[in-house]
């Protein structure tokens, strides 16, 4: 498989990880210091940062240049979200986090990488997706 064809979807996935990192930054800022969710959200954000590192390394192994931010589209989406979509309270923050992990984290990743990656890259993506599914399971358990 041609390296550039593999690095392009990996870079889009990397940009998505940066979007997630910044989203969790906002969630964490909006949670009370005493909230048990706060420390868990910090751990989830740490996972996303680790995913970003792994993706960056894989892109470099393929002789590509890793993205360093969420990209222009991601920044625009983040900006619009900050203006119009302020979650209020823990339940609302949980709902936003679940939506972000499910829609942007999992579904878009699955669509983005379908039939576009080599075996090693696909294995990495499956690791990341499994971890994100664990995040969703935890978030849903906290919601109910």
TrEMBL record:
Residues 6-103 form the DUF2383 domain. It comes from the Bacteria. InterPro entries: DUF2383 (IPR019052), Ferritin-like (IPR012347), Ferritin-like_SF (IPR009078). This is DUF2383 domain-containing protein. It comes from Cytobacillus oceanisediminis.
């Amino acid at each position: 498989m041609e390296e550039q064809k593999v690095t392009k979807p990996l870079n889009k996935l990397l940009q998505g990880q940066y979007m997630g990192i910044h989203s969790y930054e906002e969630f964490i800022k909006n949670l009370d210091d005493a909230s048990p969710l706060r420390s868990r959200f910090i751990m989830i954000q740490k996972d996303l940062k680790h995913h970003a590192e792994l993706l960056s390394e894989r892109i470099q192994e393929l002789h590509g240049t890793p993205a360093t931010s969420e990209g222009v589209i991601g920044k625009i989406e983040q900006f619009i979200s900050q203006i119009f979509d302020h979650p209020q309270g823990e339940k609302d923050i949980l709902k936003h986090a679940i939506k972000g992990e499910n829609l942007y984290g999992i579904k878009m990743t699955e669509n983005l990488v379908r039939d576009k990656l080599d075996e090693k890259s696909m294995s990495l993506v499956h690791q990341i997706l499994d971890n994100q599914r664990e995040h969703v399971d935890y978030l849903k358990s906290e919601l109910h």
